[in-house]
Structure to design on (171 residues):
């Protein structure tokens, strides 16, 4: 980390390789478009490179980087309402052995959840994505979105309430 802060591009490249998938995943889940997500992730990494010498506590690098990526993605959402992909892997859907009806129901539920997530305000959607899809703690999310853990809990609660109501017909 210290070498990267001193301008060592090889050291920073190692950090990028370690975190680029998570950065892209976060931007994709906020933006819903792979092209926009790739652009936002790249811009976040460039910003991190430029700002890295100013980072005082190197132990917080991952949260700091995710905060940069989240803010970049949120800036892009201000002008539109994105579709929110739940994930790229189809492994979560039942396979053909489960039967076409089960596969169809699972696909429909996934699409309904993506649509419901797209209807959330960006702060709620971001907190929900970071908690439920990325598995981050309330404290980590609070640091990333620059809010208190209590505010994060409230946003996630409101997001869950909205999602339960939106998906009520799937019970």
């Amino acid at each position: 980390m210290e070498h990267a802060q001193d301008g060592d591009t090889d050291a920073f490249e190692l950090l990028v390789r370690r975190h680029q998938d998570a950065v892209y995943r976060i931007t994709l889940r906020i933006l819903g478009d792979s092209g926009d997500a790739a652009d936002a992730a790249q811009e976040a990494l460039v910003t991190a490179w430029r700002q890295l010498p100013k980072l005082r506590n190197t132990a917080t690098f991952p949260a700091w980087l995710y905060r940069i990526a989240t803010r970049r993605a949120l800036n892009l959402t201000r002008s539109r309402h994105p579709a929110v992909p739940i994930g790229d892997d189809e492994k979560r859907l039942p396979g053909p052995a489960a039967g076409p009806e089960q596969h169809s129901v699972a696909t429909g539920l996934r699409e309904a959840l993506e649509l419901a997530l797209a209807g959330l305000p960006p702060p709620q959607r971001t907190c929900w994505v970071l908690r439920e899809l990325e598995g981050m703690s309330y404290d980590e999310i609070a640091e990333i979105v620059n809010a208190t853990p209590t505010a994060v809990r409230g946003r996630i609660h409101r997001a869950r309430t909205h999602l339960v109501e939106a998906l009520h017909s799937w019970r």
In short: The domain at 2-77 is CATH 1.10.1740.10 (Rna Polymerase Sigma Factor; Chain: A). The mean pLDDT is 81.
